[in-house]
Amino acid sequence: MDLRITNTGPFRVAHLAGELSASDAEEMIETLADSAFEPGARLAIDLSQLQSLDSNGLSALIHLVTRSRMNRGRVILVAPAAFVKSIFSVTRLDAWFDLCDTLEEAERQLAQS
Asked: Which of 24, 29, 41, 76 has a CB 3.0–4.6 Å from the CB of 98, allowing a cystine?
């Protein structure tokens, strides 16, 4: 997994690429903890280059979103690749996650929250 973080105004964007698996899940959580777990934090996670994820990767995304919501923050998942989107659909997490088709759409939503 490749992870790159950029700042876009008052929030951050995490760009994930490659595969999010058990060996990367904990590292992703640790790397994004400051961006997601601070009270009122706002984070967009760009999944457009994420080719696959396993159950541990999915669990890590759920953990990030849950902890953020507990602290009145918001995490939006952006443009999941087809395989990742199918996992969200099969698990019905597409209704639970905040999903946006584009980074611009996510930026607008985060700016309003």
From this structure: 76
